[in-house]
């Protein structure tokens, strides 16, 4: 991708890479990331120019109906990741490593990440945590697997954190900054900052050469990510950091009610929907 081509909506004829993301940071160009879990929505987002699609462990809630990210497994996420890869042609597809698939050891992380790369065709993986996962990050990067890090509110650690709370206030902000720099040195190509004070996210973004991706972290990060069901208005009680860009739940409700009315009244199928 040439320096004159923007990351969002650009037409390069190839997949977006970590080098493209680094170049965007150097240009001061902000970019969007969206979650995706199936081929059809991936195709829509890819066609819209979204440069990075995240197959998040949020699938635990928005796809599988759990109340947290903890129950979802590698085997649950592999087919979703493969579908997103098949449904896209330009976006980088990042696969979340789910809870319990990497915390045990660098070898466990490598085995889990390798499955996403080999079986699903992912282009990178994401994992949560700071200094405690540095050996895992180093092992993955050494094996040729790009790693997106994740700091702040890390949902897989929600029970330790005592709930979904803003992270990085006071002294813990210095610890987060230190973790971010350590992750960069370990080889992470970007870092998600979730639910941290905007001032801290700005300092981290300025301090790092790699892109930061905000979610509830203010406007100063290099990129922003949202779960697509949140931004489309499907989730009933979105977090404060979510902006709804559509009322897809309302549109779906109206459409399915109209279909039901047409079926019950005999208006559907009409002659134009019938074979002779």
TrEMBL record:
Active site annotation, chain numbering: 194
Keywords, alphabetical: Cytoplasm, Magnesium, Metal-binding, Methyltransferase, Pantothenate biosynthesis, Transferase
Gene3D superfamilies: Phosphoenolpyruvate-binding domains (3.20.20.60)
Cofactor needs: Mg(2+)
A cellular-component GO term for this protein: cytoplasm
Cofactor binding mode and count: Binds 1 Mg(2+) ion per subunit.
Function: Catalyzes the reversible reaction in which hydroxymethyl group from 5,10-methylenetetrahydrofolate is transferred onto alpha-ketoisovalerate to form ketopantoate.
Protein name: 3-methyl-2-oxobutanoate hydroxymethyltransferase
Organism: [Actinomadura] parvosata subsp. kistnae
Gene name of this polypeptide: panB
């Amino acid at each position: 991708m040439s320096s004159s081509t923007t990351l969002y909506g650009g037409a390069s004829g190839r997949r977006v890479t970590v080098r493209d993301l680094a170049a965007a940071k150097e240009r001061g160009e902000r970019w969007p990331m969206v979650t995706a879990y199936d081929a059809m929505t991936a195709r829509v987002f890819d066609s819209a120019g979204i440069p990075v699609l995240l197959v998040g462990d949020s699938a635990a809630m928005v796809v599988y109906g759990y109340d947290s990210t903890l129950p979802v497994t590698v085997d649950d996420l592999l087919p979703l990741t493969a579908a997103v890869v098949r449904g896209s042609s330009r976006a980088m597809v990042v696969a979340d490593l789910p809870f319990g698939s990497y915390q045990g050891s660098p070898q466990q992380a490598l085995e889990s990440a390798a499955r996403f790369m080999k079986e699903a065709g992912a282009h990178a993986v994401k994992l949560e945590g700071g200094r405690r996962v540095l050996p895992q990050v180093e092992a993955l990067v050494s094996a040729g697997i790009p790693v997106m890090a994740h700091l702040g509110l890390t949902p897989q650690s929600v029970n330790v954190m005592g709930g979904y709370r803003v992270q990085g206030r006071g002294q813990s902000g210095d610890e987060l900054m230190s973790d971010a720099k350590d992750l960069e040195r370990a080889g992470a190509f970007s870092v998600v900052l979730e639910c941290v004070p905007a001032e801290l996210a700005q300092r981290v973004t300025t301090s790092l050469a790699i892109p930061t991706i905000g979610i509830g972290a203010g406007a100063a990060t290099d990129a922003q990510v949202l779960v697509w069901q949140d931004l489309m208005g499907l989730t009933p009680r979105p977090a404060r950091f979510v902006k709804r860009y559509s009322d897809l739940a309302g549109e779906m409700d109206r459409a399915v009610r109209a279909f039901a009315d047409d079926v019950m009244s005999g208006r559907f199928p009409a002659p134009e929907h019938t074979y002779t």
